[in-house]
């Protein structure tokens, strides 16, 4: 009982410590609100029109920033559906097998009806030994959350949450609105910051808030600009942070552009089909996070499309029904209804040859 109680205490302490970065951000934002609204707008600015314009614009940016931040923090990461979890019988069979090839045979049997394209670098089925499930495409196990997260991008300490399929749009908007917030504060505070150095401000405590507000907002603007630009590039390329460091592996090998369908379709995967929701921290991403259309080519998808073209995205289907046979091309529940199965005997034979490699083993992936 004592070791178990000790572990629980340590786990609870870690949970508390994980909220320290979030608390730090909240304190900074609360101080910036006081410094800008009270000390700058109310106490320092004398022109009534300028004061009203600044306060209205500031509160628009502030509300959108806080809303997006809240959504990023408190939206629970999505986990794989039950179809990807091993049954009790399959888990027992897997545990009894000592040889990697035998384990792979069991996993291939389980995964044959699931919409899975990716493999490990050695070609094995991606399996999580902690969650006892076959990993969907782009799914990874988070060591902090101790769960498999759909389309995991990274675990962010500043939001104390995993950034993945369920909240990646919120995270991107959080970066955008926090950058706009900092840029607005920097721009409107600049003239009073200059007056501080030219002794143009009255000798009150407001002048020190104005000085530190300019320094803080300008420094955060630089870091947020670089981070936001990076994630804009990821969205346009349809990659996650993890996929930048390790390109997804398919049957034909690794392909950094495997999930990229072109800038327009990549944007719609994250922000949805309805543009009126793009700028709002409301979930509108396409799909269910368990399967994604692929181009399955090495060429840059931003170049002119090949005669086969890219698969069209259809976000109208909300069910989690999987096809009765494995997806061997770029079809998934996100693809248009007009596409048909292209399943030939030659393709099946080639797949069997590729999946019967005795070197395949279960690999632990994050």
Which terms summarize this structure?
single chain, 366 residues, mainly alpha, 2 domains, two-stranded antiparallel sheet, 10 helices, 8 strands, 5% strand, disordered C terminus
Plain-language structure description:
Belongs to the DHHC palmitoyltransferase family. This protein has two domains: 11-74 and 165-223, no CATH class; 82-162 and 240-355, no CATH class. It has 366 residues and is mainly alpha-helical. It has helices spanning 2-18, 20-42, 48-74, 88-96, 100-111, 168-197, 206-237, 241-245, 263-271, 345-355; strands at residues 127-128, 133-134, 140-142, 147-149, 154-156, 161-163, 249-250, 253-254. A two-stranded antiparallel sheet has the order 1-2. The protein has a two-stranded antiparallel sheet with strand order 3-4. A two-stranded antiparallel ribbon has the order 5-6. It is elongated. α2 (20-42) runs antiparallel to α3 (48-74), α2 crosses α7 (206-237) and α3 (48-74) packs antiparallel against α6. The longest helix has 32 residues, at 206-237. The relative contact order is 0.13.
- What spatial order of strands do you see in the largest sheet? 1-2
Radius of gyration: 25 Å
Number of domains: 2
Helix/strand-derived category reads: mainly alpha
Mean pLDDT: 82
Helix fraction bin:
40-55%
Task: Describe the main β-sheet briefly.
Answer: 2 strands, antiparallel
Query: Which residues form runs of ≥5 with pLDDT under 50?
Result: 297-364
Q: How is the quaternary structure best described?
A: single chain
The CA-CA distance between the termini, in Å, is 31 Å
The topology string of helices and strands comes to: HHHHHEEEEEEHHHEEHH
Helix count, DSSP H or I runs of 4 or more residues: 10
- Strand count: 8
Strand content: 5-15%
Q: Based on Cα principal axes, name the global outline.
A: elongated
